[in-house]
Amino acid sequence: MLKHLLRRCFVVFIMVGFIYSPVAIGASKKPIILKPCTQCHEAEPGVLRGKLKSISRKAKTMQIFMGSATWQLTFDDATKLDGAKAFNKIGKNKEVAVSFAKKGNSYVATEVGVKQAADIPMEWVIDAKGMADLISKNKGKLALYDARPGKFFPQGHIEGAVSNYDAKFDKNIAKLPKDKDQLVVFYCGGPT
Question: Can you give the pLDDT at residue 52?
Answer without folding.
Answer: 96
